[in-house]
């Protein structure tokens, strides 16, 4: 093996980005220069999406235009609904979402137009339509009729309306909105890098997002928010959390929702998400999950010095909001599609085909035998 190899590209800087900065030494994350905690405390998800794509927070006129465009594009075609309805409802919702984004691409006559303006329009369209797809899938799996989007409601309110037929209380809405803001962008994480690799071949933005969805599905990345809630339900009683965790560590198993490739002290987003989850849990009778969270967090810190990542508070928060566990990673997609598409546009603005080298570790070169076996 070549000594220069960095497995998993750990610690390797592969390009520049002006979209976000993760600084583990100061435990900070900024989008276009703004600390994410300040954005989560004061801004809507639509404003943050505008910031990620266009580099600035919108003024009131720009925001109105942006939200008008979002509201006008929420509906998906009958053909996409038809495809969704034909996908088996026992598959993972991320499989369906991947398929739905492929459909959006196949239906777009400008699919192969990679100009920044065209890709920006496609990014806005995906941002508007993915909640409609996810809500439809959520309801069909429960055997319920589809609720079409309501252009009179904001992004978050409309999503709850399409899923549950009602808009929840403000703490719940705010907690959801904070999760969307915190999940939106995180530099060269695995799914974003995947999107950039696809974009670097000059393929289309829908292909890049489809591939990114595949990368996010895995439990070492976005799929961890589902695994966290399954773990908490399996433990059941907060008093058993410490023993359960120590047993898993003794068995050399990974405990989902802990650790991070870049942050080694703590994930900069967790305190904000934990506070929103705790506030919502107090209002919705979810105190048991707050206690479970605290016991697991303390046990992991003591045993391995590992901190929770964003998926740890997001999992139980989505559970308390009433979403089924397999829908948690699609909720992450609803947010991260902003970051992915911004990175596709950035990659294309100064493109270089992403094609690293490998060190060969197979058999020495040899000769093909002179005579092939005769098939009988
Ligand atoms: C939004 C997001 O995508 S955040 C990430 C979500 N993913 C998860 O929560 C999955 C669980 N966590 C993990 O698997 C890891 O922490 C990762 C993959 C996120 C990052 O890890 P890496 O930087 O690749 O480190 P790696 O997996 O090599 O772990 C380093 C050491 O910490 C241990 N470790 C890291 N995370 C965990 C964990 N969650 N549980 C138990 N041990 C862990 C490893 O076993 C390893 O220990 P060792 O040196 O004794 O063998
Ligand atoms: O940055 C990473 O490796 C994973 C992560 O936290 C994210 O994508 O939000």
Automatic annotation (TrEMBL):
One of its GO terms (molecular function) is citrate synthase activity. InterPro entries: 2-MeCitrate/Citrate_synth_II (IPR011278), Citrate_synth-like_lrg_a-sub (IPR016142), Citrate_synth-like_sm_a-sub (IPR016143), Citrate_synthase (IPR002020), Citrate_synthase_AS (IPR019810), Citrate_synthase_bac-typ (IPR024176), Citrate_synthase_sf (IPR036969). It comes from Glycomyces harbinensis. This is Citrate synthase. It holds the Pfam family Citrate_synt. One of its GO terms (biological process) is carbohydrate metabolic process. Belongs to the citrate synthase family. NCBIfam families: cit_synth_II, PRK14033.1. It catalyses: oxaloacetate + acetyl-CoA + H2O = citrate + CoA + H(+). Keywords: Transferase, Tricarboxylic acid cycle. SUPFAM superfamilies: Citrate synthase. The active site is at 260, 311. Pathway: Carbohydrate metabolism; tricarboxylic acid cycle; isocitrate from oxaloacetate: step 1/2. Transmembrane segments: none annotated. GO terms for cellular component: cytosol.
């Amino acid at each position: 093996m070549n000594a220069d190899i960095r497995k998993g590209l750990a610690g390797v800087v592969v390009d520049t980005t002006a979209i976000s900065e993760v600084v583990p030494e100061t435990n900070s994350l900024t989008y276009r220069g703004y600390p994410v905690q300040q954005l989560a405390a004061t801004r809507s998800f639509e404003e943050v999406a505008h910031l990620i794509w266009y580099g600035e927070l919108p003024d009131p006129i720009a925001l109105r235009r942006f939200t008008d465009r979002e509201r006008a594009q929420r509906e998906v075609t009958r053909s996409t609904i038809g495809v969704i309805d034909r996908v088996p409802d026992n598959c993972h919702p991320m499989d369906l979402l991947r398929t739905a984004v492929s459909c959006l691409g196949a239906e777009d006559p400008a699919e192969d137009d990679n100009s920044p303006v065209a890709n920006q329009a496609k990014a806005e369209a995906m941002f508007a339509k993915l909640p409609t797809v996810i809500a439809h899938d959520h309801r069909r799996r429960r055997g319920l009729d589809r609720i079409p989007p309501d252009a009179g409601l904001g992004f978050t309110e409309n999503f709850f309306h399409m899923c549950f037929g009602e808009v929840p209380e403000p703490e719940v809405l705010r907690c959801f909105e904070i999760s969307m803001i915190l999940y939106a962008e995180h530099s060269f994480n695995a799914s974003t890098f995947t999107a950039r690799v696809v974009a670097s071949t000059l393929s289309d933005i829908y292909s890049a997002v489809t591939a990114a969805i595949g990368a996010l599905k895995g439990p070492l990345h976005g799929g961890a928010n589902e695994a966290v809630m399954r773990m908490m339900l399996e433990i059941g009683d907060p008093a058993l959390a410490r023993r359960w965790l120590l047993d898993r560590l003794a068995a050399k198993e990974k405990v989902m929702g802990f650790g991070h490739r870049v942050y080694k002290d703590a994930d900069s987003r967790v305190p904000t998400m934990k506070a929103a989850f705790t506030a919502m849990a107090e209002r919705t009778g979810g105190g048991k999950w707050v206690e479970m969270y605290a016991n697991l967090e303390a046990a992991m810190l003591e045993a391995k010095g590992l901190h929770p990542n964003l998926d740890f508070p997001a999992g139980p928060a989505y559970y308390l909001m009433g979403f089924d566990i397999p829908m948690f990673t699609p909720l992450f997609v609803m947010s991260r599609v902003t970051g992915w598409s911004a990175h596709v546009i950035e990659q294309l603005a100064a493109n270089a085909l992403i094609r690293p080298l490998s060190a060969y570790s197979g058999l020495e070169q040899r000769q093909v035998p002179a005579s092939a076996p005769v098939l009988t």
